[in-house]
């Protein structure tokens, strides 16, 4: 069974930075897309960033220039660097692995709170 585990969340002041990590365990065969999503209280889950197996990235407009997604395939790790954080970034951040339209794996989420 494929499992994803996020870590690195916490409390940070506005303007600060955090680095989130996603560890993937289990064997994965074939082409897959990795991504980060976030969900704030009372709001829908939204896409933050994606990265292909080849390293191509896409970002939500709200985080462009501030967040960076990366991956180390040999280590089965995916990262999200969060810079210039604001209270609007407060949410639970989830790691996602997409194998197909009907096959997705999710981590348990890690809380990011931006507050002074």
Describe this structure in words.
The chain is built from no helices and eleven strands. It has strands at 3-7, 10-12, 18-25, 33-39, 46-51, 57-59, 67-72, 77-82, 91-100, 103-106, 110-114. Strands 2, 4, 5, 6, 9, 10 and 11 form a seven-stranded mixed beta sheet that branches. A four-stranded antiparallel beta sheet has the order 1-3-8-7, with no helix packed on it. A hairpin with a 5-residue loop joins strand 5 and strand 6.
> Can you count the beta strands?
11
Q: What spatial form do the alpha-carbon principal axes imply?
A: globular
Indicate the proportion of strand residues. over 45%
Mean pLDDT: 94
Distance between the termini: 40 Å
Outline the low-pLDDT stretches.
Answer: none
Q: What series of H and E elements makes up the topology? A: EEEEEEEEEEE
How many H/I helices?
A: 0
Kindly state the percentage of residues in helix.
under 10%
Rounded to the nearest angstrom, the radius of gyration is 14 Å
Give the biggest beta sheet: 7 strands, mixed
Overall SS class: mainly beta
Oligomer: single chain
